[in-house]
Amino acid sequence: MLHYKKHLIAEDAPWVVFVHGAGGSSSIWFLQIKEFVKHFNVLLVDLRGHGRSKQMASSKEDRHYNFDVVTRDVIEVLDDLNIECAHFIGISLGTILIRNISELAPERVSSMVMGGAIIRLNVRAKVLVAVGNMFKRFVPYMWLYRFFAWIIMPRERHKQSRLLFVNEAKKVAQKEFMRWYRLTYELTPLLKYFEEKDTAIPTLYLMGEEDHMFLPAVRFIVSRHTNSKLEVIGNSGHVCNVDQPAEFNARAIAFLKGVSKNGCKSAPESEPSTPSLELAVC
Asked: How many domains does the chain have?
């Protein structure tokens, strides 16, 4: 099971689950905990192979996991703690996992806050992924990670975010990094499916105004999805929870408190079953 930390303020308080991105760990939420525990029970998870979660590769199937597998890791923690439903907050690739939870177990998701959301890969992002695939076996993975971090967060004011993610990525083993990188083969069809399918779950996108790679796609999808809204945080890049933590916290908490009374809804019985998202990994 994944390593996790929980902060319990009251048995009947709503839960907020924080999900970090690839190469990070639950420590990237250090600027959020103090404010959120004033209102919510908080659960922070380290994804497999990240932070204090050990490599979970006991079989060939585990060694070549996909998005559904790493998503179910999070659901397993909820089951262990008897958390029936919760609000979910993610950053970067963590937003994809949250969105996938809403497909695999929609009754567990009260709302979603998507920070630095990855909704679609633009041309620059696709080139970046392709370059990584070309050189991943010949170039030390930390060189690639530093390069990616600089492309995604290029400005001087993004320096703290870059350093935080790079320092956390150093704790990820080379083989584990490769397993996570293979997930890029799933990204395009999975994101296309998410784009085409609206969700009834209240969703707030919190994006930095300088998130040049991903903000345009979020603007587009919010215009099409009825239960989603976008708030742009000034003077901030991709990792807006670190660049502007006070703004991120205030906006996220206000949104969550607005939907807390509704709680989680049961999955509609009449809705056709969701197509399998377990795509083949090359």
From this structure: 1
